[in-house]
What does this fold into?
Amino acid sequence: MSDRERYTYMAAVMKALAHPTRLFIIDELEKGPRNVSELTDLVGIDMSTMSRHLATLKQVGIIGYTKVNNQMIYRLLCPCVMDMHKCVVKIKEQEGKRES
Amino acid sequence: MSDRERYTYMAAVMKALAHPTRLFIIDELEKGPRNVSELTDLVGIDMSTMSRHLATLKQVGIIGYTKVNNQMIYRLLCPCVMDMHKCVVKIKEQEGKRES
DNA sequence: TGGCTATTTGGCGGAATGACCAAATATAGA
DNA sequence: TCTATATTTGGTCATTCCGCCAAATAGCCA
It folds into this structure.
């Protein structure tokens, strides 16, 4: 894998995380599996929009789903995503200490 | 800070990282300070585009600069960003192990 | 089959992104 | 002051994103 490919891949993962709703989804799935309706109700957006957010996260392998009857039960595949949250918090914390 | 604000802030940081060139910039600045021309030559894009990428990273506090004569010397303010890289690598590693 | 529920997909519109070129700005030096 | 160098900013264009609504799809159950 070339450097260019690696950066492109990483950027795709970051991009998948770069939306408030999708970060919320990750936090919520960290508590346990949820179906699309539950997540939709929690966020308060159109279900079609939620479905697309879920597809975005699924596409890069952060979440997965199990089909149960006519429901899609989504779950977090990569808990390490939470480490990123912590890192972002660090960035914020040091914001005040910057020189320039 | 409300949950909604927190997610919005985090998403903004992720978004700033969500581009191959900007990830490259971070890797490069991790080695040491660089001016705009150096980074531009390394990536091979228009200097104006590079300048905007740098502004994006600066805006969320990941990098900073010092003005020396008519040069802008950029440097990494938040080395912890590298931790995120590691996390993304983890996501990639477990890609093969996924069930669905 | 028909109807009900859950979810995804197609399409549209407005906003943001990222590339380039050209022009503006700032600083050093002749 | 004039010129050269380094950087940013304004403008344009094509593409992508993200919201909604409407329609399609899939799986129960009567």
Remarks:
- Strands of chain A lie at 34-35, 63-68, 71-76.
- Chain A is about 60% helix and 15% strand.
- The first strand of chain A starts at residue 34 and ends at 35.
- Residues 5 and 11 of chain A are 10 Å apart (CA to CA).
